[in-house]
Amino acid sequence: MKSSFRAYLFRILVAGLLVTGCSQDQTVRSDMRGSIETELGAVEKVTVMSTDGQEIPLNMPVFLEELAEQGNELEVSPDPLKQEDVRFTLVLYRKNLAPLVVSIGEKASQYGDRTFRGPGAIRFYEWIHRQTGLGIVSQEMNSIFLTAEDLSSTKLLLDSERDVVKQILREADPEREQGKRQYPLHPYYRMRIHSNERPMEVTVLTPTLISIPFGRETHIYHVEGSLFSQLTSWLPPQEKAADPLEKLFKATKLRVEATETEQIENKEIDLTATTIKQGMAHEIVRTIKGAASLAEAPAQPGKPRFVLHFVTGDSTRFVTIYPHYFQFENSWFSHNQADQYILKLLDSSGK
Question: Is 99 in the same domain as 157?
Answer without folding.
Answer: no
